[in-house]
Every structure is written in C-alpha cells, then in structure tokens.
Amino acid sequence: MNLRIEVPSDLELLLLKCAEEEGVPVEAIVLAAVTDKLGNTTAVSPDYTADQFSTWLRAWADRFPKLDIVIDDSRESIYEGRGE
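RE: above sequence
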C-alpha cells in the first residue's frame, strides 16, 4: 500500500535526523513507527543490510525494561530436580 501524508516540518526534521542516525531510509522509520503503533514489531525491511538490521534489533530490544537481576538459565538450573 502506498500512502501520501503531509508531515509538519518539525516532525520532518525529526524523521530525517532519526533516519540519518540509524542509517536507514525515512520510509523505514515511518514503517517502524506504524508497526509499533499497531503492535506488529516483526516488520523489518528486506532491504536492510546486516548493520541496519543490527541497529533495528538493538532499538527494538531497548524498548523493553532492563532487569536488575541475574537469571540463571544454565542447563543445570533448568533441569534441576528432574532426575537427571
């Protein structure tokens, strides 16, 4: 789907700055914002390079809260008490 929208100049500057910082096209920033709003965070541009995908993935992960605890996810802790 193609859409044409008028963006206020202050938002346009923010879009351009964000796209430049992330090294992706403005369209990718807008698409990410729309998918976030709709709850679909799996949309990634097939045109992303490995570095652009890495930047997108880090930005996606940074949206979630950081835990101040260490979680033991070792094999031993997962299977503890299961008779192995």
